[in-house]
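Exercise: predict the fold of this chain.
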Amino acid sequence: MAQLHQDGVSQRWSMPSEQERTLSCAVAMMDLYKGERQREINRLEAMLTRHWPELLELMELGTATQLALLSEVGGAAQVAHEAARALQVMARMSRGKLKPEVAQAVLASARSTVGIAPIAAELEMLRALAAKALTTLASLQRAMRKLRALSKRDVQACAMATTVGVATAAVLVNDIGSPEQFPSARAYLKAAGLNLREKSSGKYRGQLKLTKRGPSRARRYLWLAVLRLLQSDPLVRAYYVQKVARNGGRKSKAVVAVMRKLAKGLHASARSGMPFDSSRLFDVSRLALS
């Protein structure tokens, strides 16, 4: 390290600004509540699968309406017994947006569920878990609102948020750095741990692998962003399908390839101020678009 400093290639460390530290805390809080919510939702799904499986088909798992119904009214037997109250709770929590036929289907499923009737202790646990998940959801929503407000102050984060969302954009800026700090897309990929290097061993011989030297959380959020783009962007989907075919059906390698393309596009878009355009990432003439 001393030799690097003597050669003039080191840089003086500077304390992050208050805005950067505030953003870092906001990202950490969001990630904390997301982790808690996922664990609670997983446990709730297991209990509903056992005691009221029909509710999982009628209402999206973990919504405020579903959680309030379970925590305030109870399981299937309680909902069937207190139908009027159950309807009031669903109408209040959905702000009148829940379709009447869905609400009636929930009541019907409560009366005819094939799930195992919970004992008193299991019902208490179900209600407590739903109440805790509802509290965590509210905390996550507050954290997201704060993060959204902070991201509006960062030009780079705003530019990326239109493509990958506020949460992912904030994580990328916080964990990797602002794209304006990196003179090239190659440097940005390297900072994210998305650059390739040859890996040879007894199992692999001369294969290119990700270095994964950058922040793992940023790669995790980029992975999820790619999965969303596959559903919404036909160009990204077409490239992914062709990549899967070329890789012998290995979908994870195709997702990683799209991640690298997306990171390059985000870097270019944020630095130039131009809107993100997926057609600039691929040779569109070679994509099989329907």
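Check your answer against the key: The mean pLDDT is 89.
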